[in-house]
Design brief:
The chain has 309 residues and is mainly alpha-helical. The protein folds into 2 domains: 2-75; 91-301, MetI-like fold (Orthogonal Bundle). It contains 13 helices and no strands. α1 crosses α4, α5 (89-124) packs across α8 and α5 (89-124) runs parallel beside α13. It is flat and about 85 Å long.
Length: 309
Amino acid sequence: MRFAKYLGKRLIISLITLVGVVLVLVLMTKLIPGDPARVIAGLNASDQEVARIRQSMGLDQPVLIQFGHFILNLLHGNLGTSARTGNPVVGEIATRLPFTLELAICGTLIGIVFGVLLGVLAAVRKGTWVESVVSALGVMGISMPVYWLGLLLIILFAVQLKWLPVAGASTVNSIVLPAVAVGVSLVAVISRVTNSSMIDVLGQDYVRSVRAKGSPERVAVFTHALRNALIPVITVVGLEFGTLLGGAVLTETVFGWPGIGQLAVTSIQARDYPMVQGIVFVFAIMFIIVNIITDVMYTVVDPRVKLHG
């Protein structure tokens, strides 16, 4: 009952958020410099052609009318038509979304596995050279631009060693390099958060009691301390995963990965406003879903955390 109440409250808040996102998307065509219809039609198009495009896109209507049309189209699963390709926006996004999901999941898994292990190792070996090395690697991972790391990976593993494809998504191995490029920065962030959280938890009285009872160190660390240290880690993972779902723009561009990020860059360059609006709206939905799942994960990791409606 408590979970149902919480979920209902979150859904209401999410709907209000999405309505706000739609309003911003509608205002975007009014506030950006220039005439979207003129940009789409081209500089050499006639005034009649520009007027036709403006009317077909509803840009000649007041903001509230455009807002109502957008909401009505959403209820019918319609996000408009791409000005660049002439295809439905929903279809274009649906084609690219699986690739972005694949990259986000693989990169996040790399970040979680290696980030948590390195963070725990640094916390257990606090004050030793191990902690210094892990800390240095974390700083390097956070500071390293993803496009630069991506180019290094391509030069080494694709051009020199010829182990993996340079770009694209034509083979199963194509996901390796972009996932590693995304995962490295996540490893750096997650390891630092895990290290900080574990150091705090390992100093708690209940962990000292477990050790005093003669339990093995691995039991004290992984069974008792790590589970309680995962709350801030889950928060970071949720935020990073939600961002990746919105499209790892630089990574997808460097590796030619056909995901939402690359589609967003192409659409912005082509001034494809309907596609940009659709991508932003889908990104908002996915981010909301990830946040709700993250909140639920808190209760799974730590039953003491209660979801209040």
